[in-house]
Design a protein that fits this description.
Radius of gyration: 17 Å
CATH superfamily of the domain at 60-192: Ferritin, core subunit, four-helix bundle
Helix content: 40-55%
Largest sheet: 2 strands, antiparallel
Low-confidence stretches: 1-45, 197-211
Structural class: mainly alpha
Strand order of the largest sheet: 1-4
Order of helices and strands: EEEEHHHH
Distance between the termini: 31 Å
Mean pLDDT: 77
Number of strands: 4
Oligomer: single chain
CATH topology of the domain at 60-192: Ferritin
CATH architecture of the domain at 60-192: Up-down Bundle
Number of helices: 4
C-alpha cells in the first residue's frame, strides 16, 4: 500500500486559517495510517493543515486585507511543512536525492515569504512542523508522497494567486509555484519511478540545483 504522508485537508481560503476540516477527510499519521478528522467548511480545494493560521486579524495594523494575510499564512505553512518533511527524510536516509537539494530550495522559498511578512508588518511565526512532520519507511515512499505534495502545492498557489492584486506578492507566489511545477515535482517523479536526476537510483546522495 502506498505510504502517503501528505496531510490533506479541505478548507476555503479564508476559512482554512480558522476552521476545522470537513467530513470524510483523512489525515495521514507518521506511521502511514489514516484517521478521520473533524467537520468543517467544504471547498473544492484540498490543502495541508495550517498550523500557523490562528491569526488575530483584528489586531493587525498593516495594509493587507484579510484574504491577503490568509494567503501568505497558507503559503508559508506549506513551505514550512515541506521543509520539515524533507529534513526528516534527509536525517533518516542520509541526504538522499532529491531531498538534499530540494530542502534548501524550500528554505529559500520560506525566506521569500517571510520577507513579505516583514514588509507588510505581519509577525513571522516559527515553523511548528519541525519535529512534528510525517515520516516514511523508504525514500521511494517519500518521493511518491512528494509528487502528491507538489500537486497540492500547485492548487494552493492557484488559489492564493487570486487573493491579492499586489505585484510583489504575486511575483513571489508565481516563482514558488513555478519552482514546484518545473523543478520539484519532476525530481520527485524521477525518484518515484526509480530513476535519479542523473539516471541512477533515486535514493542516492546528490547536491544538484533545485530552485
Amino acid at each position: 500500500m502506498l505510504l502517503k504522508a501528505v496531510l490533506i485537508f479541505t478548507a476555503a481560503l479564508g476559512a482554512a486559517c480558522a476552521q476545522s476540516t470537513p467530513d470524510n477527510t483523512v489525515k495521514a499519521t507518521s506511521d502511514g495510517e489514516s484517521t478521520p478528522v473533524s467537520k468543517g467548511v467544504k471547498s473544492d480545494l484540498t490543502e495541508n493543515e495550517c498550523k500557523i493560521c490562528d491569526f488575530d486579524f483584528d489586531s493587525y495594523k498593516g495594509e493587507l486585507k484579510k484574504e491577503e494575510v490568509d494567503g501568505l499564512l497558507l503559503a508559508l505553512n506549506d513551505e514550512y511543512l515541506a521543509t520539515a518533511i524533507y529534513k526528516g527524510v534527509n536525517e533518516k536516509f542520509d541526504d538522499p536525492r532529491p531531498f538534499a537539494n530540494i530542502v534548501r530550495a524550500e528554505e529559500r522559498h520560506a525566506t521569500m515569504l517571510k520577507d513579505l511578512f516583514e514588509t507588510y508588518k505581519i509577525p513571522v511565526p516559527d515553523n511548528p512542523w519541525l519535529e512534528n512532520a510525517p515520516a516514511f519507511d523508504s525514500v521511494m515512499a517519500a518521493c511518491e508522497a512528494g509528487v502528491e505534495a507538489e500537486i497540492v502545492n500547485k492548487e494552493l498557489y492557484d488559489k492564493v494567486l487570486k487573493s491579492t492584486p499586489r505585484d510583489d506578492i504575486l511575483f513571489v507566489y508565481k516563482n514558488l509555484q513555478r519552482a514546484s511545477e518545473e523543478n520539484h515535482k519532476p525530481a520527485f517523479e524521477r525518484c518515484a519511478s526509480g530513476v535519479g536526476p542523473e539516471g541512477g537510483s533515486g535514493s542516492g546522495r546528490g547536491r544538484g540545483a533545485n530552485r
